[in-house]
Amino acid sequence: MAHEFTVLDSELLLESPILALRRDTLAMPGDVTATREVVEHFGAVAVVALDDDGRIALVRQYRHSAQDRLWELPAGILDMVGEDELATAERELQEEAGLAAGDWSVLADLITSPGFCDESVRVYLARDLRPVERPEAEHEEADMTMEWVDLDEAKARVFRGEVVNAIAISGIMTAAEVAAGRAEPRPVSAPFRHRPTSLAERRQAAGIVPDMKKL
Predict the structure, then answer these.
(1) What is the DSSP string of 28-41?
(2) What digits encode the pLDDT tens for the residues 148-203?
């Protein structure tokens, strides 16, 4: 029989605007216990915006943890109470790429670092694109640039090591399979089973709404 990894105790170690750190004590096989640290996250969405010419919108953004500007997909955190995944994706596509889409589907759901973090990301495919006004950006996004890249060239950048963001790699490769007719995306109604809940539920219980980052 499969072992039941019961949480015996949980301790919150750190709380910050976009994440938290907790330590869980688990019942392990062999009648022993062990502790595991978990980085809590709100979860996120990302968008492969594919135009009629077979190009996708890639953004280049400074990421301090990598100390580099990385090629990425338009993306954002699920940090607003009551906003579903698709609404967040629509907002982020406008804010980061100045685009809206008439056709949406789901390419992939990712658990980005399951060894220590509960972050899960839903990657959308957006088609039937049109330009819309992009709101004024701030912080790293004020330095962000956007480029239309042929999907085959985007794949080549992955293999050349020029696109290293894991979410972008997943989106590019799955979108290429759909574009080639070898795969079908899922409908936007497909359940997002691993969307994180711990951080969001604790912030909402503390009255930190609607923007759960605002500690």
Answers:
(1) ETTTEEEEEEEEEE
(2) 999 999 999 999 999 999 999 999 999 999 999 999 999 999 999 999 999 999 99
Whether 11 and 76 map to the same domain: the answer is: no
Q: Is 116 exposed, middle or buried (0-12, 13-18, 19+ CB in 10 A)?
A: exposed
Describe the crossing of helices 166-179 and 151-159 by its angle, rounded to 10 degrees: 140
**What is the set of active-site residues?**
141
Helix (H) or strand (E) run with residue 168 in it: helix 166-179
Which amino acid is it at 193?
R
Q: How many domains is the chain built from?
A: 2
Confidence of residue 19 (pLDDT cuts 50, 70, 90): very high
- In the chain, the amino acid numbered 140 is E
Specify whether the CB–CB gap between 127 and 48 falls below 8 A: no
197 belongs to a structural domain: no
**Range(s) of the domain holding residue 12:** 7-40
Instruction: Kindly state the helix (H) or strand (E) to which residue 93 belongs, with its residue range.
Output: helix 85-97
1 occurs within a structural domain: no
Structure tokens at 63: 């990421």
Whether residues 28 and 61 fall in one domain: no
Q: Tell me the longest C-alpha to C-alpha distance in the chain.
A: 59
Same domain, 22 and 60: no
